[in-house]
UniProtKB/TrEMBL annotation:
Keyword tags: Hydrolase
Superkingdom, natural source: Bacteria
Gene Ontology molecular function: any one: long-chain fatty acyl-CoA hydrolase activity
Gene3D superfamilies the UniProt entry points to: Hotdog Thioesterase
Protein name: Acyl-CoA thioesterase
Residues in HotDog ACOT-type domain copies: 8-120
Top EC group: hydrolase
The EC number(s) this enzyme carries: 3.1.2.20
One of the protein's GO biological processes: acyl-CoA metabolic process
InterPro entries found in the cross-reference section: Cytosol_ACT (IPR040170), HOTDOG_ACOT (IPR033120), HotDog_dom_sf (IPR029069), Thioestr_dom (IPR006683)
Species of provenance: Chryseobacterium arthrosphaerae
Protein family per UniProt: Belongs to the acyl coenzyme A hydrolase family.
Length: 183
């Protein structure tokens, strides 16, 4: 197995049509159905990255910005955004695609954490991940903060133990003035 992989090696694309039994009373895709699709897509990306069995450790963030109507085409695209020691963050983007009018709207995104496990469900090391595009680099840079937040919210880390997250709440330091400046 490669020790380092690119984000694009974990790219997973799932395209489905929204069926009536997947919709809510407004005849739009039901949120829980979409979450299941996102989890499936993201888990394939995670397994592609580490070439191991993976489990969902956390759903860190999901936003629902636009509804996807019955009969519409839903496209999910996921990639590993950062690999840590045994866990990895996976970013899922969702689009509503209208092939007749050729309109594609970004409707949702979600951020998941997966852990690679052995046959006894024990976490095991995974390859590093190198971001290449600008978007991959931005997501990679912010992933450590999100990991810390997820660990705090799940009670696995105390807020004061965080490194990157704490920096967001710290007052900017006043530049130190020398005696010469004060004259
Ligand atoms: C996820 C699981 C394997 C972690 O096992 P564990 O013995 O607690 O392992 P650790 O504490 O060593 O954590 C392993 C990694 O997961 C990360 N992790 C665990 N919980 C996390 C969370 N809520 N958010 C972000 N990362 C998390 C840890 O930071 C660690 O990452 P690192 O090694 O890359 O630094 C275990 O909790 C589990 O099996 N959970 C059930 C998973 C499941 O059934 N999912 C299906 C959906 S319900």
């Amino acid at each position: 197995m490669a020790k380092v992989k690119t984000a694009s090696e974990s790219l997973t694309i799932m395209t489905n049509i929204v069926l009536p039994n997947e919709t809510n009373s407004l005849r739009n895709l039901f949120g829980g159905e979409l979450l299941a699709k996102m989890d499936r897509c993201a888990s394939i990306s995670a397994a592609r990255h580490c070439e191991r069995r993976v489990v969902t450790a956390s759903v860190n963030h999901v936003s629902f910005n636009h509804p996807i109507p019955e009969g519409g085409v839903v496209v999910l695209e996921s990639k590993v955004s950062r690999a840590f020691s045994t866990s990895m963050e996976v970013y899922v983007d969702v689009w509503s695609d209208d092939p007749i009018n050729q309109k594609k709207i970004h409707t949702n995104s979600g951020i998941y954490t997966f852990v690679a496990v052995d046959e006894f469900n024990r976490p095991i090391p995974i390859p590093d991940m190198i971001p290449e595009t600008e978007e991959e680099k931005e997501r990679y840079a912010a992933a450590f903060r999100r990991k810390e937040l997820s660990l705090i919210l799940s009670g696995r880390m105390k807020p004061l133990e965080s490194v990157e997250l704490k920096k967001l709440f710290q007052e900017p330091q006043e530049p130190q003035t020398s005696k010469k400046d004060k004259k």
